Amino acid sequence: MRLEAVRGDLTTEPVDAIVNAANSSLLGGGGVDGAIHAAAGPTLLAECREVRRTAYPSGLPVGYAVATGAGNLPARWVIHTVGPNWHRGERDEAALASCFTASLAEAVRVGARSVSFPAVSAGVYGWAGATVARVAVAAVRGFEPADAIDQVRFVLFSDRLHDEFAAALRA
Ligand code: AR6
User: What is the pTM of this model?
Assistant: First the structure.
Protein backbone atom coordinates (compact mmCIF):
# COMPACT_ATOMS: atom_id res chain seq x y z
CA MET A 1 0.00 0.00 0.00
CA ARG A 2 1.41 3.40 -1.04
CA LEU A 3 0.52 6.44 1.10
CA GLU A 4 0.87 10.08 0.11
CA ALA A 5 -0.33 13.53 1.13
CA VAL A 6 -1.23 16.03 -1.58
CA ARG A 7 -2.67 19.52 -1.66
CA GLY A 8 -5.86 19.32 -3.71
CA ASP A 9 -9.60 18.97 -4.11
CA LEU A 10 -11.17 15.61 -3.35
CA THR A 11 -13.91 16.06 -5.95
CA THR A 12 -11.44 15.84 -8.84
CA GLU A 13 -9.53 12.79 -7.58
CA PRO A 14 -9.15 10.12 -10.29
CA VAL A 15 -9.19 7.20 -7.84
CA ASP A 16 -11.54 4.27 -7.32
CA ALA A 17 -13.10 5.75 -4.17
CA ILE A 18 -13.14 9.06 -2.35
CA VAL A 19 -14.13 9.28 1.29
CA ASN A 20 -16.71 11.82 2.40
CA ALA A 21 -16.54 13.46 5.83
CA ALA A 22 -20.30 13.24 6.23
CA ASN A 23 -22.69 13.56 9.15
CA SER A 24 -24.98 10.86 10.52
CA SER A 25 -27.92 11.97 8.39
CA LEU A 26 -26.03 11.22 5.15
CA LEU A 27 -28.21 13.88 3.57
CA GLY A 28 -25.47 16.41 2.87
CA GLY A 29 -23.99 19.40 4.65
CA GLY A 30 -21.20 21.93 4.27
CA GLY A 31 -17.44 21.48 3.87
CA VAL A 32 -16.20 18.60 1.81
CA ASP A 33 -19.62 16.91 2.09
CA GLY A 34 -21.30 19.86 0.36
CA ALA A 35 -18.58 19.98 -2.31
CA ILE A 36 -18.93 16.25 -3.04
CA HIS A 37 -22.73 16.38 -3.33
CA ALA A 38 -22.55 19.48 -5.55
CA ALA A 39 -20.03 17.87 -7.89
CA ALA A 40 -21.63 14.41 -7.91
CA GLY A 41 -25.16 15.60 -8.67
CA PRO A 42 -28.54 14.42 -7.37
CA THR A 43 -28.02 10.68 -7.80
CA LEU A 44 -25.64 10.74 -4.84
CA LEU A 45 -28.30 12.15 -2.53
CA ALA A 46 -30.81 9.62 -3.87
CA GLU A 47 -28.41 6.77 -3.07
CA CYS A 48 -27.79 8.18 0.40
CA ARG A 49 -31.54 8.34 1.04
CA GLU A 50 -31.76 4.69 0.01
CA VAL A 51 -28.95 3.76 2.44
CA ARG A 52 -30.87 5.55 5.20
CA ARG A 53 -34.11 3.78 4.29
CA THR A 54 -32.54 0.32 4.20
CA ALA A 55 -29.27 -0.13 6.15
CA TYR A 56 -29.17 2.83 8.57
CA PRO A 57 -32.68 4.17 9.31
CA SER A 58 -31.47 6.07 12.38
CA GLY A 59 -28.35 7.43 10.71
CA LEU A 60 -24.77 6.29 10.21
CA PRO A 61 -23.01 6.09 13.60
CA VAL A 62 -19.72 7.87 14.32
CA GLY A 63 -16.77 5.77 13.16
CA TYR A 64 -18.80 3.78 10.60
CA ALA A 65 -18.50 3.90 6.81
CA VAL A 66 -20.79 3.04 3.91
CA ALA A 67 -20.21 3.13 0.14
CA THR A 68 -22.46 4.48 -2.59
CA GLY A 69 -21.94 5.23 -6.26
CA ALA A 70 -20.30 8.53 -7.14
CA GLY A 71 -22.68 10.17 -9.62
CA ASN A 72 -20.79 12.53 -11.95
CA LEU A 73 -17.49 12.36 -10.05
CA PRO A 74 -14.40 10.82 -11.64
CA ALA A 75 -14.26 8.32 -8.77
CA ARG A 76 -16.43 5.21 -8.95
CA TRP A 77 -17.52 5.15 -5.32
CA VAL A 78 -18.05 7.59 -2.48
CA ILE A 79 -17.44 6.10 0.93
CA HIS A 80 -19.30 8.11 3.55
CA THR A 81 -17.94 8.16 7.07
CA VAL A 82 -18.93 10.15 10.16
CA GLY A 83 -16.12 11.62 12.22
CA PRO A 84 -16.37 12.45 15.92
CA ASN A 85 -17.37 16.04 16.67
CA TRP A 86 -14.87 17.64 19.07
CA HIS A 87 -17.32 20.44 19.86
CA ARG A 88 -19.88 17.88 21.08
CA GLY A 89 -17.29 16.26 23.36
CA GLU A 90 -16.55 13.38 20.99
CA ARG A 91 -12.80 13.23 21.66
CA ASP A 92 -12.00 9.51 21.44
CA GLU A 93 -9.13 8.94 19.00
CA ALA A 94 -10.28 5.34 18.48
CA ALA A 95 -13.54 6.66 16.99
CA LEU A 96 -11.58 8.82 14.56
CA ALA A 97 -9.21 5.95 13.69
CA SER A 98 -12.27 3.81 13.01
CA CYS A 99 -13.39 6.25 10.29
CA PHE A 100 -10.24 5.43 8.35
CA THR A 101 -10.18 1.67 8.94
CA ALA A 102 -13.93 1.25 8.36
CA SER A 103 -13.61 3.26 5.12
CA LEU A 104 -10.79 1.03 3.89
CA ALA A 105 -12.79 -2.07 4.85
CA GLU A 106 -15.69 -0.71 2.83
CA ALA A 107 -13.30 -0.04 -0.09
CA VAL A 108 -12.16 -3.66 0.02
CA ARG A 109 -15.77 -4.83 0.16
CA VAL A 110 -16.70 -2.99 -3.06
CA GLY A 111 -13.39 -3.72 -4.82
CA ALA A 112 -11.81 -0.25 -4.71
CA ARG A 113 -8.00 -0.40 -4.74
CA SER A 114 -7.18 3.34 -4.64
CA VAL A 115 -8.77 5.58 -2.00
CA SER A 116 -8.52 9.31 -1.33
CA PHE A 117 -9.33 10.72 2.10
CA PRO A 118 -9.99 14.23 3.38
CA ALA A 119 -8.94 15.32 6.87
CA VAL A 120 -12.04 13.84 8.51
CA SER A 121 -13.18 15.87 11.56
CA ALA A 122 -10.57 18.62 10.98
CA GLY A 123 -13.12 21.15 9.71
CA VAL A 124 -16.56 21.85 11.16
CA TYR A 125 -16.07 19.05 13.69
CA GLY A 126 -13.15 20.89 15.24
CA TRP A 127 -10.32 18.38 15.70
CA ALA A 128 -6.74 19.71 15.48
CA GLY A 129 -5.22 18.96 12.09
CA ALA A 130 -2.03 17.47 13.53
CA THR A 131 -4.07 15.03 15.64
CA VAL A 132 -6.18 13.97 12.68
CA ALA A 133 -3.01 13.48 10.63
CA ARG A 134 -1.34 11.32 13.30
CA VAL A 135 -4.45 9.20 13.91
CA ALA A 136 -5.22 8.82 10.19
CA VAL A 137 -1.71 7.76 9.20
CA ALA A 138 -1.49 5.23 12.05
CA ALA A 139 -4.90 3.79 11.22
CA VAL A 140 -4.14 3.40 7.52
CA ARG A 141 -0.69 1.93 8.21
CA GLY A 142 -2.24 -0.61 10.56
CA PHE A 143 -5.02 -1.65 8.18
CA GLU A 144 -5.32 -5.34 7.29
CA PRO A 145 -5.40 -6.79 4.69
CA ALA A 146 -2.88 -4.14 3.54
CA ASP A 147 -2.35 -5.82 0.18
CA ALA A 148 -6.03 -5.37 -0.73
CA ILE A 149 -5.41 -1.63 -1.28
CA ASP A 150 -2.76 -0.26 -3.68
CA GLN A 151 -2.88 3.45 -2.95
CA VAL A 152 -4.13 5.81 -0.24
CA ARG A 153 -4.01 9.54 -0.83
CA PHE A 154 -4.70 12.19 1.81
CA VAL A 155 -6.05 15.15 -0.14
CA LEU A 156 -5.75 18.35 1.86
CA PHE A 157 -7.45 21.64 1.23
CA SER A 158 -4.84 23.90 2.90
CA ASP A 159 -1.07 24.15 3.01
CA ARG A 160 -1.13 23.82 6.78
CA LEU A 161 -3.06 20.55 6.75
CA HIS A 162 -0.87 19.29 3.94
CA ASP A 163 2.23 20.03 6.03
CA GLU A 164 0.68 18.27 9.05
CA PHE A 165 -0.08 15.14 7.03
CA ALA A 166 3.33 15.19 5.34
CA ALA A 167 4.95 15.37 8.80
CA ALA A 168 2.83 12.45 10.07
CA LEU A 169 3.87 10.40 7.04
CA ARG A 170 7.55 11.12 7.76
CA ALA A 171 7.23 10.17 11.45
N1 AR6 B 1 -11.42 18.58 -0.94
C2 AR6 B 1 -10.64 18.22 0.10
N3 AR6 B 1 -10.83 18.70 1.35
C4 AR6 B 1 -11.83 19.58 1.53
C5 AR6 B 1 -12.70 20.00 0.49
C6 AR6 B 1 -12.45 19.46 -0.80
N7 AR6 B 1 -13.21 19.78 -1.84
N8 AR6 B 1 -13.60 20.87 1.01
C9 AR6 B 1 -13.31 21.01 2.32
N10 AR6 B 1 -12.25 20.23 2.64
P11 AR6 B 1 -15.33 19.29 6.98
P12 AR6 B 1 -15.73 17.53 9.33
C13 AR6 B 1 -11.57 20.04 3.93
O14 AR6 B 1 -15.86 20.45 7.73
O15 AR6 B 1 -14.84 18.38 10.17
C16 AR6 B 1 -20.15 18.89 6.97
O17 AR6 B 1 -21.12 19.88 7.05
C18 AR6 B 1 -11.79 21.07 5.00
O19 AR6 B 1 -11.00 22.20 4.76
O20 AR6 B 1 -15.75 19.10 5.57
O21 AR6 B 1 -15.57 16.03 9.41
C22 AR6 B 1 -20.73 17.49 7.18
O23 AR6 B 1 -22.00 17.36 6.63
C24 AR6 B 1 -11.32 20.29 6.23
O25 AR6 B 1 -9.90 20.35 6.34
O26 AR6 B 1 -15.62 17.87 7.74
C27 AR6 B 1 -20.72 17.36 8.66
O28 AR6 B 1 -21.87 17.95 9.23
C29 AR6 B 1 -11.70 18.85 5.92
O30 AR6 B 1 -12.06 18.85 4.52
C31 AR6 B 1 -19.49 18.10 9.09
O32 AR6 B 1 -19.25 19.06 8.08
C33 AR6 B 1 -12.88 18.34 6.71
O34 AR6 B 1 -13.75 19.41 7.04
C35 AR6 B 1 -18.29 17.20 9.17
O36 AR6 B 1 -17.20 17.93 9.69
Answer: 0.98
